[in-house]
């Protein structure tokens, strides 16, 4: 796939689940038409039952945590990702105004 996206999924042994997570993250990038190179890491949190994911790209650096079973990650990560970018954009707009 594109070298613009480097997606790492740790702590999940099921290749199909990892593939679903990676596809859903890539689709989020395409849906939002985000420019530049991006790195996303999804891994088990040090807090039991939670998953951390970090997003790095252009001027965006976020680390988020979700308490869900692994099979829900493909659905919830893109939603949280969009929410975090929306929050980032609204804060940036307030600073510039």
Cα-atom radius of gyration: 14 Å
What fraction of residues sit in β-strands?
Answer: 25-35%
Total strands: the figure is 4
Structural class by SSE content: alpha+beta
**Fraction of residues in H or I helices:** 40-55%
Which spans have pLDDT < 50 for at least 5 consecutive residues? Answer: 90-97
Give the overall average pLDDT: 81
Q: Assign an overall shape.
A: globular
Order of helices and strands: EHEEEH
Question: What gap, in angstroms, lies between the N and C termini?
Answer: 38 Å
Largest sheet: 4 strands, mixed
- The neighbouring-strand order within the major sheet is 1-2-3-4
> What is the tally of helical segments?
2
SSE map:
Blueprint: E1 5-9, H1 15-32, E2 38-44, E3 51-57, E4 60-66, H2 73-96
Parallel strand pairs: 1-2
Antiparallel strand pairs: 2-3, 3-4
Task: Walk me through the structure.
The chain is globular, with a radius of gyration of 14 Å. The chain is of the alpha+beta class. Helix 1 runs parallel beside helix 2. The protein contains two helices and four strands; from the N terminus they run βαβββα. A four-stranded mixed sheet has the order 1-2-3-4, covered by helices on one side. The protein has helices at 15-32, 73-96; strands at 5-9, 38-44, 51-57, 60-66.
């Amino acid at each position: 796939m594109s070298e613009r996206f480097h997606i790492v999924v740790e702590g999940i042994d099921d290749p199909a689940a990892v593939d679903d997570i990676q596809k859903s993250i890539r689709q989020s990038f395409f849906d939002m038409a985000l420019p530049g190179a991006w790195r996303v890491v999804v891994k088990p949190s040090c807090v039991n039952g939670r998953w951390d994911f970090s997003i790095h790209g252009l001027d965006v650096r976020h680390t988020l945590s979700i308490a869900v079973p692994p099979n829900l990650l493909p659905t919830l990560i893109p939603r949280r990702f969009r929410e975090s970018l929306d929050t980032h954009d609204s804060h940036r707009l307030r600073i510039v105004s």
